[in-house]
Amino acid sequence: MLLVGGSLFTSTPATALFRRRALRCSASAPLQEAGLVRRAAEVADLSAGHTSPHPNFGCVIARGVDVVGEGFLYAQGTKCAELQAVEMAGALARGATAYLNMEPGDCFSDHTAVSSLVQAGISRVVVGLRHPFQHLRGKAIQSLRNEGVQVDVLGEDLQSKIFEDALKSCLIVNAPLLYRAAFHVPFSVLKYAMTLDGKIATRSGHASWISSKVSRGRVFELRGRSDAIVVGGNTVRRDDPRLTARHGGGHVPVRIVMSQTLDLPDEANLWNVYEAYTIVATQRGARKDLQKKLAKKGVEVVEFDILSPRDVMQYCYDRGYLSVLWECGGSLAAPAISSGVIHKVYAFVAPKIIGGVNAPSPVGELGMVEMSQALDLIDVSYEQVGPDMLISGFLQPIPDLSPVIPSSDELSAIDPTVCPFDTKIISFYKTWDLYGAFSNYSPHPIQMPDENGKYQTWSSVEHYYQAQKFAGVDDRLAKDAYEEIKTAKSPEEASRKGRRLQRQHPDMVRADWESAKIDVMYRALKCKFSTYPDLSAMLVSTAGSVLVEASPHDLFWGGGREGEGLNYLGRLLMQLRTEILDRNSKAAVVS
Fold first, then answer.
1. pLDDT tens string 267-282
2. In its keyword annotation, does this UniProt entry include Metal-binding (predicted)?
3. Residue 373: is it exposed, middle or buried by C-beta count within 10 angstroms (0-12/13-18/19+)?
């Protein structure tokens, strides 16, 4: 559910999307084009809820007013929107115009989006937004122009007011990415349900149910669009929530509990990590006995010197989260708003009155004494959801990054002393990072032999690595797990399935896995970097720098939150880099 073009809409099944092969516009050309850009934003939004949130890319190919192809990025590492659209359009793509909600750039070294449009014969591309990350900004646009494709960017080449609504649609559909790029925190949404008299529970704390079943279904959709859900200790003690998306599969967000004192029950629904992962954020030194109990249940406990909403959001930013949903009570909502980490509000207002002087309200004390201090929502939207009214709006404007920011190549042309690789420590994590192509989730398929020597194609290194946990095990469930991971639609799904199956069925994991996993990973990395010369060149360009996989939670493959991790992925890449440099040096001597 997202505000696009001034109204709220929910995603439709992809099958229904691909049956709609034409879109008719009867207005003038600028209005037609504005409508097609808005359509690209709508198509981009169709991936929400399938997997962990990521940049939302949509592509619409049209000949005049007729749409002949559409596609959206399902997840990082899957077939790009542009390739899907040209495959649908077929021969009709030649000479047609492609409309993109945002400049392509899911991964720095992946050129599939541009090559798909060029090879299909697309003559013109209309782009809603340049990519918000500076190391990707303008690169795809310049590549298309270098290939002779006309590229028009909203707000630059197309400046008519007619395109303002289309530009807004493109901004909103990628609001999480834009906030991350501009403010270096995830996009945070505060959600609550209250009565007409502004209460979220009775004076006894009972709150089930203020809103209707229809509204609760909408909340599940909001959860499915989020990387994480934040609640406070009061919510855990009072409601014992599950905080699952319940949308019939797909992405399940991480649950985060903020508690300074760790005054939490030994048993709670959130401590069951088979449905979803749980993180407890607390103050350093709080209740070490409970920390140990939670760790045994598989709950991750993260200590902060001073627990605050901003520090927790910084931690979420470091984990690569784009979108966070706050479902907390008023005592946590107030400091979250005061610290500036809440960007949007969803308020479900039920036609009920319960009264009560001591009944809690959605937001606690903010220290305001005059109405002039009140925080105004902007871009406010109203929608009736069952018997309830949903009011939503932004507390902070959506960052408009449309002014041209020079790319790293353009900076080098301006100042040759500027070098994007001039650093001693190079970190990578998400595929949208500057060195994100080093990630196991990057969209680079590999071919690896199975136990019989037969080569199989794997969609990513992560697919291959997770499946190898069950390779060669003479057990039907293990074989099923192997195939389930191999056919996962995205690296995120492959990782989620592999980790879940390993936790639930440790007996299915191959006996030598702990001693073999490093070799498995290294062979996959060698295949990846030998298959793609541009990746090998990027790796060689980091010579002299320490490579760190910047996962704050994986203390084996990653570097950890405070450098306490073993960083084995970074180590293997540096080992591979040395091998490539030695090989290149020997080849140079021979020549």
1. 999 999 987 899 999 9
2. no
3. exposed
The identity of residue 359, as a single letter, is A
Q: Contact 408/423 with Cβ under 8 angstroms?
A: no
Segment 85-98, tens digit of pLDDT: 999 999 999 999 99
User: How far is residue 129's CA from residue 398's CA, in Å, rounded to a whole number?
Assistant: 13
Residue 82 annotated as catalytic: yes
Q: How far apart are CA 527 and CA 523, in angstroms?
A: 6
| AA identity, residue 258 | M
Q: What is the pLDDT of residues 454-507, one digit of tens each?
A: 999 999 999 999 999 999 999 999 999 999 999 999 998 999 899 989 988 999
Closest by CA to 173, choosing from 299, 8, 289, is: 8
**Which residue segments constitute the domains of the chain, with CATH numbers given?**
2-173 (3.40.140.10), 178-367+374-394 (3.40.430.10), 408-590 (1.10.357.40)
CA gap 204, 289 in Å, rounded: 30
| Catalytic residue chosen out of the listed positions 33, 70, 82, 549 | 82
Strand partners, 264: none
Residue 3: its pLDDT value, please? 34
What pLDDT shows up at residue 591?
Answer: 63
3-state DSSP assignment of residue 64: coil
